[in-house]
TrEMBL record:
Secretion signal, residue range per the UniProt entry: 1-27
Protein name: CDGP domain-containing protein
Domain of life: Bacteria
NAD keyword on record: no
Pfam families per record: CDGP
Keyword RNA-binding: no
Residue stretches making up the CDGP domain: 28-94
Alphabetical keyword list: Signal
Source organism of the structure: Mycobacterium numidiamassiliense
Region (Disordered): 70-96
Amino acid sequence: MKRCVVAGLAAVLMAAGLITSAPPAGAGCLYGGPVLSKCDGPVQPDGTWQRCVAFTHWIPSGASSFLAPERRCDSMGPGQNPGDLGFADPPTHIND
């Protein structure tokens, strides 16, 4: 019985340690408009962050052609050139 209590307590402490050591959530998202979604990861110490944009891609397949979602991620921030797909709008970090 004592071993079960100790093992349970150890498992709880390990889980709590993993949760408290996780990086803080700093991501924000925008939905709709010309893309399905646009989400920013946390800002890194050098001022950059990762932005992921989800958009639709037309897949022709005869009479049953369809739109499929695709996702592209790129770096944003000082000195970065994100390119197309509306990556640079907005040019600042998206916050919650």
